[in-house]
Write a structure and sequence with these properties.
By secondary structure, the chain is an alpha/beta fold. The protein folds into two domains: 6-115 and 229-329, D-Maltodextrin-Binding Protein, domain 2; 117-223, D-Maltodextrin-Binding Protein, domain 2 (3-Layer(aba) Sandwich), CATH 3.40.190.10. 39% of the residues lie in helices and 21% in strands. The chain contains 13 helices and 13 strands. A five-stranded mixed sheet has the order 9-8-10-7-11, sandwiched between helices. A three-stranded mixed sheet has the order 1-3-2. Helix 1 crosses helix 10 (248-264) and helix 1 (45-55) packs across helix 11. The longest helix has 17 residues, at 248-264. It is globular, with a radius of gyration of 20 Å. Mean pLDDT is 91; it is low at 1-31.
Amino acid sequence: MSKIHDLTRRSALSLLAGGAATPLLPSLTLADKIDTLALFGPPAGPSVTLAHAVASGGFSALAANATFTAWRNPDELRAGLTSGSIGLSVVPVQAAANLYNRGFPIRLANIMTDGLLYIISEAPEIKSISDLKGRSIAVPFRGDTPEIIFGQLVSHAGLNAEEDLQITYAGSPIEAMQLLLAGKVEAALTAEPSTTAGILRGRKAGKKIARVINIQDAWGEMTDAAPVLPQAGLAVTGAFMETGSEMIPDILKVLRTATSEVLEDPGKAAEQATGALGLPAALLAASVPHCNLVARNAVEARADIERMLKAMAGKDMARIGGKLPDNKFYT
């Protein structure tokens, strides 16, 4: 596994005059607290929420020690899930559904972003997917969520990805952004904060890079629905559920509070997340408004999730493991 960044915060108990502990979350007692609550996520928007929750002591009533660790790519995530080293993580919803339908014990607890994908370019005449015809574009994570979503949008626009576009597959959104900055492609599919990074770095290099296509808007048009792309959420493995299922409601409560705090003060949250994500605080703060951060329980978001999964699968249901996940997928 590649080198990853950790953020750890040991919480202190608040003492009343009589010496009794005052938990922040009333549903758990001191005896219920676990030693360590380990959370994981990508170097992307939702992880700012997790890192902020850890750094601000949001989980102090649940665990003596809370940690956040960033994974770097979907392969690293899958390896951690299957090996058991990752039990609680932000996961692309499509990946979680695929694993679940193939028999892996994983559940989706919530949605933490309603979409953070954009196409950036120096060409202002690119305003829609159809405008990409004949152009070169960098696309990250071939075979995973961003590429699948992009592929469905390309097909919906009446284009053939192999014949009408010149696609360069990148290992990550950051790499896709770098290919654009280097002038090797005319556009790049990126995810926040790589999108913001491309715009800011381009500005320093005298390039007028901009968000030319909001993928969430394009997705809403394709599905004839609101521009909502429930791209990723907190997933829980069976191993964690065996010992910590009773903690899930309180974890989700912490994340709802943390999400509100991140949106209210992106600068403060970014300062808390910079070390964990290995990205500059100024970049993270600037990207937050474009991350569509939310904290929706998976059960409540099910209609949006199923709409997205159906559209992502298209005629190839294998992309989501052969079928829509059943009720047990939603915690």
